[in-house]
Amino acid sequence: MAGARGNKQPVGTITRGTTNPNRLRRVDRWTVHTYGPLLRAAAPSPVVVDLGYGAHPVTTLELRDRLAVVRPDVVVVGLEIDEERVRAAQPHADPPGLSFARGGFEIPLHGLPAPLLVRAFNVLRQYDEGQVAQAWSRIVGRLAPGGALVEGTCNEVGRLGSWVDVRAVDGQPQPRSLTLSWRLRDIEAPSVVAERLPKALIHRNVPGERVHELMVALDTAWSRAAGHAPYGARQRFLATVEDLIGQGWPMLGNRQRWRLGELEVAWAAVAPRP
């Protein structure tokens, strides 16, 4: 991970930058649901950062529009290490609610309040697993009290992905949950999501690790729910989730979220083993 020289150079590495409209729709939908109450209760003009938005700022614009439904005065800042990407995004800026700046994990906000939320998607995939904790710590250290980091990855069209909800507890990162997301009619086996696990877990999908146990349990429950297939993938998935709950997996969320193809599990159930 690149360091900052005299606090002038952004901390991090330039990403590939690939993006597509609606690629992050699923995580945005979850963010609005999960953090809507926090945004509504925040002080005026809460700040949300989209870290590493890529070669085009379309997903940052979409984030601002989706959050504005629950908090019209939200301030969204898109940060990129690549100066050219920042310049290219400026025509899309809409002060004071939407701006773009150069920056990385140090989250420079140039006089704005500390961010309530940071979304970092498809950013850490290119890093080593051992660098994840450092990145989380650096970002969480910049959050407002009670703030959170949403960090994860998805495929190119956003139909398959996962993310970690990382809360700030006494200035330190405390992962709360892992969310897995599928477009249900595309599922052949739920474990396909393993190829899009966050960096903290993607190399842990091996026997002996908790996340691997979850992948096996998902596929097994999905197979047992085959009798629901004639009623559609959604009914089969709901039966799969109920099976997992019956086995003792600590599922969060509710039936409404599961119907959308979201499965949120407590972090302790999937956390890497030492």
Automatic annotation (TrEMBL):
Gene3D superfamilies: Vaccinia Virus protein VP39
Spans annotated as Disordered: 1-21
Polar residues: compositionally biased ranges: 10-21
GO MF term (any one): methyltransferase activity
Entry keyword annotation includes Transferase: yes
Swiss-Prot/TrEMBL keywords: Methyltransferase, Transferase
Highest taxon, organism lineage: Bacteria
Biological process annotations from GO: methylation
Keyword Transferase set for record: yes
InterPro entries: SAM-dependent_MTases_sf
Official protein name in the record: Class I SAM-dependent methyltransferase
Organism: Ornithinimicrobium ciconiae
